[in-house]
Amino acid sequence: MEHENDFEQLFKEWQETTRKLMDRFPERKETFQTTSNIEIERLYLPEQLDSTYMEKLGLPGQFPYTRGIQPTMYRARHWTMRQYAGFGSAEETNKRFRYLLDQGQTGLSVAFDLPTQIGYDSDHSMSKGEVGKVGVAIDSLEDMEALLKGIPLDKVSTSMTINAPAAVLLAMYIVVAEKQGVSPDKISGTIQNDILKEYIARGTYIFPPKPSMRLITDIFAYCTENVPRWNTISISGYHIREAGATAAQELAFTIANGKAYVEAALETGLDIDQFAPRLAFFFNAHNVFFEEIAKFRAARRMWAKIMKETYHAKNPKSWQLRFHTQTGGSTLTAQQPDNNIVRVTVQALSAILGGTQSLHTNSRDEALALPTEESARIALRTQQILANESGVADTVDPLAGSYFVETLTDELEKEAHRYLDKIKELGGAVSAVEQGYMQREIHHTAYETQKAIEKGDQIVVGMNAYQLDDEPKPELHRLDPELSANQVRKLGKVRSKRDQQRASAQLESLRRAAQASENLMPHIVECVRTYCTIGEICGVLREEFGEYTGI
Amino acid sequence: MKKKIRVLIAKPGLDGHDRGALIISQALRDYGMEVIYTGLRQTPEQIVASAVQEDVDAIGLSCLSGAHNELFPEIVKGLKAQGAGDIIVIGGGVIPWEDIPFLEEQGIKKIFTPGTPSIETAKYIEKVVCQRDGISLENPVDLIEKVDHIGIAVQSLDESLPFYLDILQLKLVGIEEVASESVKVAFIDAGNVKLELLEPISQSSPIHSFLEKRGSGIHHVALGVGNIQERIDEIKKKGIRMIHNAPKPGAGGASIAFMHPKSTNGVLYELCEKPSKERL
Which helix (H) or strand (E) holds B270? Predict the structure, then answer.
């Protein structure tokens, strides 16, 4: 293998498979050119392919995927522009979804309100003030039916930011699809379903780690059999970074969590290549441009090696780290909010140069309130400008071979491995989380960052430098104040309309399954079908599993 | 005064974003306060109970989900019902500016917007707690922040400016007329402090009489303060005579008041509060 000719041969094979792939998925244009009519090639390589290059970078679409998971990347298709949306009632959000689909969007991304995310019904005392605030309120199947009304679930893929009660929302989605005449094997989408980062950073946990991990592996097993096109988890560094982590910590803790999910699934007897191709990732695109690009590249290489070498996955799809990216919310300032458009642009560009599969760009006013429609549109336009005007999508992994970027990629990988070793010493990610290790590391970094900003060592434009004396007060998004009362009324009607005996019986069978070690998914699907509410379903599980109360 | 201030940092509502709450907890501790952090998902009742039980001086509420209008006032009400209405409640998080007046009306003492340095929050808590308890601070908070500018009386701006701009090569910030004092004012940036050249535009101007009596030269020193009316009251309490007992409009949109030179050893001092910058 050490001969140059062998590498040339590999490259020729790559060209051949790429050509075949292009027959099925042609590129966006016949040829790509600069303004000066210089032809832009699909892939740029060192003059001589050698073993160091092939081991560290390889060819796009091939192990270790440093240069991307597809051979043609954005020359065939731009990343998916997937803007996270959801507000107020299911009916209102449904209208927005249908508008977006009419505009040619093919993927939906649902934001749920906090009571839904924590498994409380809208009329629970804990839900006060929160109903419909940060996303759509879903109490029962009826709300989900309204949310997805008129949307062809065999054609649209739906991403749902839902974690602790992910099983319940997925069950609702499955039942709504069935009612539309779409069988579970035809639907596609993603649930976030990443509980470990909830304990570490995001805070919408319900149950303690052990039963939470069981719910996750139950979903893996159920979907492998019944919902094969569903991405069963989106392992998220995003919120870890938002909580204050460095790029290396984001990378390391995300991969550590990913390993924990893989190990939990293997322990239940699943085969690695059955579930690993449905694992997805979710990263943050933060400010420090080249480090972010390096982080995405390092993540792909690390995951590929771990899957192949540690867990002996055989299917190349199991090696590929596919990821969604969102620009860094905590980098936005409340001061001079229009400046945030520029921040978002730079961050989005790093995600694109890092080879993301899909991207959410934040709106300029997110440090102030939920985005207005105008702000949300500018955020989407930012992606469209990058995709269609800048030319950055015209060649694969354009920064490969940059001394700086390659060094950063190597260094981040090394640094992340140091953290992974430490986490291993602590007994793995679940145990490290229980001991508060990641939480402490992140808090330490967050506090140091805050001090640096307050001392002026770290400049935040418009906030601690270049301030305006008179900040204009922008127009902000307001929610319907009647929303909560309406939702509570609707919920009451559902409870009085349904077959109460059947609903109670289903909840009892869920309880028995929870006490035993049966897969919970089929029981949750039946509960949902009889219009048991999310609060009732999670209530039974709370009684059986207990609640996590933080450290 | 060596009062150890006790603060409860609390997260009402369901959002799990506690980066801000954790940072402010640590910053207040580093400032010397005792801080209790409640953790996530606290109901107003739980927060009130913790505050009473821990006998805190102040509560800092952090909410990023948009539930502040419903939850913050509940806490103030609950404290009053428990006879603990003297506990000072402040808040922060993602709170739209248009909600702030409502929250303050409901008894939340102050809302801090994103980007507020944590030291400002600490000093604010210290100040209001000490005010409440009638304790004067050893190191008064922001009594005098800095020398804001030095006022220099001149016969003519046109004749004086070339010295500052051409010879000393300083930068002109702006020229404006202050009707209340009948003067035309030029502000010059001298690095850490501004020079304020004052030219009278009528015979009624105090600068006119100053020039008549003493000729051109240093007229006054302006001390930058926050909350000028409070400063005036404090200074008066200490037996200093003020020329102005209430602030009046000065150059650059500032509020100003002069101390009487008879009680300040012959120097004319101005107190000067700059507009629009968020003050504590």
Answer: strand B269-273
